[in-house]
Give the backbone structure.
Amino acid sequence: MDMISIPAINMTPILPEIFLSSLAMVLLLITVFSPGGSKSLLGNISFIGIAATAVLVGSGWGANISSFNGSVILDNFATFFKMVFLLSAGLSILISDKYMNREGCNHGELYPIILFTTVGMMLMASGTDLMVIFLGLEVMSVSLYVLAGFNRNNLKSNEAGLKYFLLGAFSTGFLLYGMALIYGATGTTRIAKIATIIGQMTLPSANIMLVAGMLLMFTGFAFKVAAAPFHMWTPDVYEGAPTPMTAFMSTGPKAAAFAASLRIFLIALPTLQAEWGQLLWVLAVLTMTVGNITALRQDNIKRMLAYSSIAHAGYCLVGFAAGNGTGTAGILFYMLSYAFMNIGAFAIIILVAKKGEPNGTVMDLAGFGFKHPILALAMTIFMFSLAGVPPTAGFIGKFYLFSGAIQKGYIWLAILGVLNSAASVYYYLRVIVYMYMKEPNEEFEWTVVTAPVALALLIAVAGTLIPGVVPSLLLELAQNAIKLI
Amino acid sequence: MANLNSYLIISAILFSIGTVGVLTRKNAIVIFMCIELMLNAVNLTFVALSRHLGNLDGQVFVFFIMTVAAAEAAVGLALMISFYNNKESIDVDDVHLMKW
């Protein structure tokens, strides 16, 4: 065996991660040494930290620096996804304080753990080595288990944490076994080298180890993005977890799993695209259909949004199955706009619910439109965007995902996608019908909109409407981001 | 010395035992043990392949997996304790508050 040579290290690609994790550690120490201190202050500091990191990440747009001997890369693809994660984390932090105070679990650890999750997601997006991607995935997942079970006196939250932990660790096993077999078939864990070595094989699809590795890794990622038939954990975890954390989990980590799997499948395994493309075709149809059909009969609004998030993962898988420029750019665009609209919808749910969320059903929104016209208008915008009604970001995103499939020749996939999207309109509109056309069954308590929640809602509404009206700017960014892969 | 194939087969068997265990067992801690078995099967695969390929990447990967498994155990057991505090059980059949 040859000696390990230590290459010159360029720290620039992981500067945002270093900054964010240092901040998280400092905040953790502050929490420990001032147990009675103001938790809102911690939230504000972490939000400012996230904003500063976003500036740092944004300044790297256009760069293409590979470092740590090809383990991490700073490219537009990573930058775009990092922005999605930071946005998702920032908005979730803004809506956390109110909820956590109401539920009596405003422990200071919350914010550092959100920051650690973000660091893990960022590593997933910028990793170009299976090892780094695995490490990022685990930093993200382990923190998410804690966040799902954060309300430790609430049995539902305990259940969510436990379920997420058991199934998440189980899926990690599959992912790792897949990585091991791919390492065995190619002799390297670097994504670029894997691609070169597979490119030299005469018939890669006949290499059993490689194909088995790909399938196992595929399963692992399907778990993480909650694609059917690996979605069974999603509704329970999303329902039981504290609402701001549900908002976070359904946007950031899902985007991170897409980022890592896009990089692995499109860069390392393009030679097997015929194989995984077909698998994704089936998975996309299953995921969309299962998500939408089950969402139709949900009364609990968090559970409905959980199934809807499965369906949205399905729409993104349509773009992934296409695997071409339009489809992948569509995924990037969709993940960003989904973060805006979904976190916005969850923010409204936080405002409507009472302590302990005794019911939290769609019926509880009855009469909301008359009591709080502005909030109801915001909710209407989010629901229209989730349903894919123009002129919202959700419509443009779906349009690009489906046109990617059509360009690839997957006409049926696009048709099934559109049909699914039409079915989903029923349960999104149901929310609007209850808000505007039903009498409230009980007197509303006056919902206090705190400044952070108002800011989050403002950002979310802007992010849902502006890309819907002028999509070209964001789409250009997304297309720039996928140029390198 | 046994050849590569026997290592790969034994780790595949271990991985399958772990998978079946996760799917059939009811006690959360036993399920977690089965997951650890799966991870260790992966470790064995990595080490065997690393030795076969004469390349250290696989062994480095094993260190990462072990570290991560330790962190996961800490968080997982903590979650089980908080569940036990509220429910007096760690049987996954009791994890049924939410159903579709």
Observations:
- The mean pLDDT of chain B is 90.
- The domain at 4-89 of chain B is CATH 1.10.287.3510 (Helix Hairpins).
